[in-house]
Here is the input.
Amino acid sequence: MTLPLPPFLKSGDCIGIAATARWVSREQLQPALDLFTGWGLRVKVADQVYTHNFQLAGSADLRCSGLQEMLDDPEVNAVIIARGGYGTVHVIDELRFDALLQKPKWIAGYSDITVLHGHLNSCGLATIHSTMPISFPDATAIALEELRRCLFGEQTEFVSELPYTGHEVEGRLVGGNLSVLYSIAGSVSWKFDEPLILFIEDVDEMLYHLDRMLWGLERCGALSRVKAIVCGGFTQMRDNTVAFNFPSDNPWGSSWESIIQQSAERLGIPVAFGFPAGHLSDNRAFYLGRMATLKPATAGAIISYQQG
Here is the structure.
């Protein structure tokens, strides 16, 4: 099932901010409030965003109610999650999406928010993979501009920065953080019955963990409909070597690029590298859950969105 795209924003609309994982302070959120106001938007912030429960923005019940408030509020036209970390999986099965699916609105974020992306994309709703308010002060100007363009319906394509020699592929663009995707595989939050273009990125993982996750996803069938893999940043990847504070050098023997390429070869599909998204300051926004076409371009690869 494919739902209509959520309405794109216009000046005077309202964006809501909730926190399904870690908390933020009022001071940390202020740059985002200033930016959204500068875009001509009104802003509502769920009270629980500032709540401390160790790393988390309140109990699971509070985090759930904070996002639910934003989803159900008729004045809120889009929702962005304040920050990632870990914790969205605690609330995903308690959230009620009936009103959202009847009257869609854009949901934006990345990293731990892959749980929401996978769940909503599986329901047929498009979302936005983007930087989040906690990262706005360190984000590049183009990363913030691409978020604005996605929210306001101005983005038509997403371009990689590395050569792509694979063939043209069509499918629904889905994915996000690989570690989080690995954790929801086989659940109701990852159910697709159509050709897919899979976007993946990750941060601070051992190289052999990356290999293990891809094998696990292959073996459980989560990649059975994937027709191409597109890669964002894989930052701070680590190996069993002295350089990473291990007592001796016992490297895995393959780079993260090679590990993903090997997975793609086992699946018999192309892989494209160099998309500027993930745990990077240049974390540019793009749409997930939309039908898209991946094709070679002069300098790299282009993902263009189809209608719906």
About this structure: The radius of gyration is 19 Å. The longest helix spans residues 26-38. The chain has eight helices and 13 strands. The helical segments are 26-38, 60-72, 98-102, 114-122, 141-151, 178-184, 207-219, 256-267.
